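cron nightly-structures :: item 1 of 1
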Amino acid sequence: MKIANIELGHRPVMLAPMEDVTDPSFRLICREQGASMVYTEFVSAEALIRNIASTTRKLDIDNRERPVAIQIYGREPEAMVEAARIVEQAQPDILDINFGCPVKKVAHKGAGAGMLRDIPKLLSITKAVVDAVSIPVTVKTRLGWDCENKIITDLAPRLQDCGIKALTVHGRTRSQMYTGKADWTLIGELKQDPRMEIPIIGNGDITSPEEALSAFETYGVDGIMIGRAAFGAPWLFHEVREMLDTGTYTPVPLNRRFALLRRQVEESVQRIDEYRGILHIRRHLAASPLFKGIPNFRETRIAMLRANTLDELMPILDHTEQLLNTLSQS
């Protein structure tokens, strides 16, 4: 699969853009584990053009991450165009427009998935951004605003006409947020639509190598995107890649999983500082499948998520790895 002239290989698997999750360290780890392309956190167009430091830092790219996309969101064409030009100077491989973020503070202000309630403006922004930059522009969106307005099959060709080079569709409406089950039916219909010439990437509920393979075989998508399932589990990309390439996979060993999680912790601390770095990584620790289903783990889990220093946190991870090794041998 190609996006413009960027070759992503057969059945590519992308790391979805996620706020406070897809920082440079996590992106690089996911690339090393087999992600075909990674996306930055959401970048607010308004904050970017005001030169807010916390936003401009999101443009930092390590060449080892490539191919990498920077994603922007906003509600005003002029701001989105100016932000797109600033992003282009950071030299990402792709500029992605976010028309899918469902959170209230974004969508209810008319940005992200909020744009699905104003299609003329959505298309105007898309065309303006495409015309403003020389790098490939892509879009990520949802099926529609709510279940009564699943408009993606009508919207996709119009986005293509604006000049985007690929389209990612999350199989939920904005009103669903992240609840219920992602519906890939309309994503599959897009792949059957003779009008569609650009790659279609499916997103939503890919949590295992088996589901990844099924998404390609059932819906015929050009690529898939993994989001929340990668929290605290970057090794998922290794397992998915092996499944897609060979038809089977061997689970990543426990010691390698813990090594990757420790690396996330350490690099988060190095990138920010000890207290805030550990605070940042708690989302990964809380969601990691490594800690699910361990008997009598509640108190240890609480201590892990309350740890404020490496001296507090690392012994807990060591103890938990030893515990899981013991359980696996019993």
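cron nightly-structures :: done
The mean pLDDT is 94.
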